[in-house]
Each structure stands twice: as structure tokens, then as C-alpha cells.
Amino acid sequence: TPKLRASEGIDQVVAFGNTLHISGRDNNLIERGIRTHAGAENRFEPCETSLEEVFIDLMRGMNP
């Protein structure tokens, strides 16, 4: 996940069980970052941002 976090356009990577929730503001950049670092055995699909992910993002912004 450190490589994903460092990818342009990826603002947040959060583990939820055995999945990663990856978010950012530009879907094309997010997809490019995922394709660059994900293996062939991995799959990804877009989903709506959850309230929990928004909360995590806000809390990280409060702790520089």
C-alpha cells in the first residue's frame, strides 16, 4: 500500500478486511495508480465513498 499511497491522484488508502478502499478526486489518476501497482490476480471496481472514509480523511487532516 505505500506505493499506492504515493501514487499521483490517490489521496487515501484504507484497509477494510481483505480489501483496500482507495479514494481521490480524479478517477483516471486513481485507476492509473491501481493498474500500475496491482497484480493480475487483483480486481478493482468503483464504489461510493462511505461516511467512515470521510471521517478517517477528516481525522487525518487534524493531525498533521
Describe the 3D structure.
By secondary structure, the chain is an alpha+beta fold. The chain has helices spanning 2-5, 27-37, 51-62; strands spanning 12-16, 19-23. Strands 1-2 form a two-stranded antiparallel sheet. The protein is globular, with a radius of gyration of 12 Å. The mean pLDDT is 85.
List the helices and strands and how they pair.
Blueprint (H helix, E strand, L loop, with lengths): L1 H4 L6 E5 L2 E5 L3 H11 L13 H12 L2
Antiparallel strand pairs: 1-2
Labels describing this entry:
alpha+beta; two-stranded antiparallel sheet; 2 strands
Summarize the structure.
By secondary structure, this protein is an alpha+beta fold.
Helix share bin: 40-55%
Query: Which band does the percent of strand residues land in?
Result: 15-25%
Q: Count all strands and give the number.
A: 2
* Helix-and-strand structural type: alpha+beta
Largest sheet: number of strands, sense, barrel closure:
2 strands, antiparallel
Total helical segments = 3
Reading side by side through the largest sheet, how are the strands ordered? 1-2
Mean pLDDT metric: 85
* Estimated radius of gyration: 12 Å
| Element-level helix/strand string | HEEHH
Shape: globular
Distance between the termini: 20 Å
- Which regions contain 5 or more consecutive residues with pLDDT less than 50? none
